[in-house]
Amino acid sequence: MEDLKVIQGKTWQAKKMGSDYVLNVDFGAQLIESLEDFVRSEDIGSGEISGIGATNEATLGFYNFETQEYDTKTFQEQMEIASAIGNIAYKDDELYIHLHITLGREDFGSYAGHLLEATIHGVAEFYVRSNPFKVIKSKNEENNMWVYDFDR
Question: Which of 11, 24, 112, 115 would bridge with 101, disulfide CB 3.0–4.6 Å?
């Protein structure tokens, strides 16, 4: 079996085996900011992310096709990160973590959408599978969305 490697950043800790990682994000840390720091530190070109945890503040976006922009809303209450799933790619040369999230509320209702940022309040446990190649997204001018560009 391949050796496990433990790595640590300012607001996260991870264990690596091959191209796979398990990752903790610290209490009080910003989730997207921490994931970006992790991806940069490991020089990950592309990959997939999934996770669970808890937050007490999250800003979500919902893409409005009429305006071709995200409508955003911030929720401030204790919530479970019931599911977070997404990918790692680059918008041209800029790192882009595209993460969708479902947040469970105390009344067992939920919020869901594109995660812009969340403050970890409790625990955040993520699994990252990295690819040995970089994936680039280019802007589709027709609908103002970023899509995989396999010619780049």
Answer: 115
Exposure string over 74-110, b if 16+ CB within 10 A, otherwise e: ebeeebbbbebebbbbbeeeeebbebebbbbeeeeee
Given this model, what pLDDT does residue 3 score?
75
Sign of the alpha-carbon dihedral angle for 80, 85, 88, 94: negative
> Domain residues of the chain, as ranges?
4-148
Q: Which fold has domain 4-148?
A: 60s Ribosomal Protein L30; Chain: A; (3.30.1330)
